[in-house]
Structures are given as structure tokens and as C-alpha cells.
């Protein structure tokens, strides 16, 4: 979201991350430029805004006051722009979307391509993040809308739509498992397994299955990247456990097979379309959200 000045944008990022270096990485701006703006701001206010500590930067009392008002100014300014754009009937602007790695391929790129054709005035910026960071960026106002896996309750979080995807075994089409319509989790002991590792959300669900089934799976390899896991399966190294969402493209192309896990205690993976309830969204953001909602309502094979 645009803000009043470069200084305010840099100041809010440094205050949020407690470090010029981390703010630099987040904003993709040179640390020296950020430091220079902070020093200019302190000179203009006539007082330090941060305490310089060995562990990083900490807001002074003045800095805390500016941080509180700065966030409010940023939100108010964004709301003002939204109202002006809606009054003018514009269908342009930038929409920031946070998504997990699982959506870097599949329906979302196709949807964004269609939007580009129908609404060329809208610029969509996608932020591929670890699932645990998506909610933080949404509530902080860094993105307009988020696609979140297994969302937890949080103040201000509004789920506009959701879809559930079963978990299952992923293997090559000629693998013995591919002949089954479903399989119990205990099938893990029969085949070389490729397991998801933290911070993937699937890791915790598999841990629960191991406890409930009184099994301890010893994988031949593991990875914290969905694409790597699928590549390892394609190379014939073993069988993986993923959600159906993770392999939609490969199933369409018949490159991989998906066999749902039939354990009753296993919950499906939930993909939720989320916004910050307290934030007024631009017309462009509402249009994009509406198009994503249609995708969620579309029938799935």
C-alpha cells in the first residue's frame, strides 16, 4: 500500500523487524538508504526514534508514538485511496496476494493470466511465503488478500471461502499403490517413503497419524519443499505423502497418481481465502477476491 513518504515506509519496516538489515531484505532496499532516511527523520524530529543495541534497534518512547500513529496514517491513507478510486469507478491499481508455495503452480497462475486479459489495469503482486508468515503479513497490512493453509483463529481474520483437499500417497502411475482407490497410513511400512519436513504444514499431520497408528515411519529421504518431493517421486526414489492440492497439475498430465489415505482420524488440508476484516479493500482487490472465490466454488475432480 502506498504511504505518505519514503521515510514512513522505511521507519515502519525497521520498527516491525527491529533491524535495518531485516527491513532491507523485506523491502528490497539498500540498508544504507534506509539508515539515511531514519537519521534524517531523527534530525527532523530532534530526538532519537530508536535505541541502538547490540541485538538490534528498539523504539524509544517517541518512536513508539510515531509507530502507532504511522500505522494509523498508512491505513487511513489506504482507505482514502480506496474511496477515491471507487468514486471514480476505476478498475486499476495494485493488489498484493500472499500464497503458500503449493500455489506457485496450478489454478492461481492461470487465474492471474485470465485477469490480466480482462482487467489489464490491475497489477497483481504475488508473495510466495512460508504458511506461518502469511497470516502475519495479512494482519500487518503488507498484503491485501491471503490464501492460507489450515488457518487458525486470529483477531480480524475473515475467511471468505475455503476448499478441502484430502491427503494421500503420491506415486508413479505404474506403482502397485496406484491400483488402489484408497489406502491406510500403515502402507508406509511397505514402501520407501519420502516425507515432508518442517515448516511444511503436512509434517504435523503426519506426526499425528504416526501417534494414532502407533507407527514410526523411517523415510529414505525428506524435504521441506513440495516441488522437490514431487521430483523425487518422479525419479522413482519412493512414495510421498502430500495433499491433492500439491499434485493437481501432475494428475491432470497423468505424471503421478494420488491415493487418498483412508484413516478416519486424518483431517483434510484446508485452503482458505482470507482478508483482514478491519481493512477496507480497494475496488481492484474486491474484484480479484471475487474471481478467486469463483475458483473455490468450481467443481473439483
UniProtKB/TrEMBL annotation:
Annotated keywords: DNA-binding, Transcription, Transcription regulation
Domain HTH lysR-type stretches: 8-60
GO molecular function: DNA binding; DNA-binding transcription factor activity
Record-annotated membrane-spanning stretches: none
GO cellular component, one term: cytosol
Superkingdom, natural source: Bacteria
Similarity comment: family membership: Belongs to the LysR transcriptional regulatory family.
Name of the featured protein: LysR family transcriptional regulator
Species: Gluconobacter morbifer G707
Amino acid at each position: 500500500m502506498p504511504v505518505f513518504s519514503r521515510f514512513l515506509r522505511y521507519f515502519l519496516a525497521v520498527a516491525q523487524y527491529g533491524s535495518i538489515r531485516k527491513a532491507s531484505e523485506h523491502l528490497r532496499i539498500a540498508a544504507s538508504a534506509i539508515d539515511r532516511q531514519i537519521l534524517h527523520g531523527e534530525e527532523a524530529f530532534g530526538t532519537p526514534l530508536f535505541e541502538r543495541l547490540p541485538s538490534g534497534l528498539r523504539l524509544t518512547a517517541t518512536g513508539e508514538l510515531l509507530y502507532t500513529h504511522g500505522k494509523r496514517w498508512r491505513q487511513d491513507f489506504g482507505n482514502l485511496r480506496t474511496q477515491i478510486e471507487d468514486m471514480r469507478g476505476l478498475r486499476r491499481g495494485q493488489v498484493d496476494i500472499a500464497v503458500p508455495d503449493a500455489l506457485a503452480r496450478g489454478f492461481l497462475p492461470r487465474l492471474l493470466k485470465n485477469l490480466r486479459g480482462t482487467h489489464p489495469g490491475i497489477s497483481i503482486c504475488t508473495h510466495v511465503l512460508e504458511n506461518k508468515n502469511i497470516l502475519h503479513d495479512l494482519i500487518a497490512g503488507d498484503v491485501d488478500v491471503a490464501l492460507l493453509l489450515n488457518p487458525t483463529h486470529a483477531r480480524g481474520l475473515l475467511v471468505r471461502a475455503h476448499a478441502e483437499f484430502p491427503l494421500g500417497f503420491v506415486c508413479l502411475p505404474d506403482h502397485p499403490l496406484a491400483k488402489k482407490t484408497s489406502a491406510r497410513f500403515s502402507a508406509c511400512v511397505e514402501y520407501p517413503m519420502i516425507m515432508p519436513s518442517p515448516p511444511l504444514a503436512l509434517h504435523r499431520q503426519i506426526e499425528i497419524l504416526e501417534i494414532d497408528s502407533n507407527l514410526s515411519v523411517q523415510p529414505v529421504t525428506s524435504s521441506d519443499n513440495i516441488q522437490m518431493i514431487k521430483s523425487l517421486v518422479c525419479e522413482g526414489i519412493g512414495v510421498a505423502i502430500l495433499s491433492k492440492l500439491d499434485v493437481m497439475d501432475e494428475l491432470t498430465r497423468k505424471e503421478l497418481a494420488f491415493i487418498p489415505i483412508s484413516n478416519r482420524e486424518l483431517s483434510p488440508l484446508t485452503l482458505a481465502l482470507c482478508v483482514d476484516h478491519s481493512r477496507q479493500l480497494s475496488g481492484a482487490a474486491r474484484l480479484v477476491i471475487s474471481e478467486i472465490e469463483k475458483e473455490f466454488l468450481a467443481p473439483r475432480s
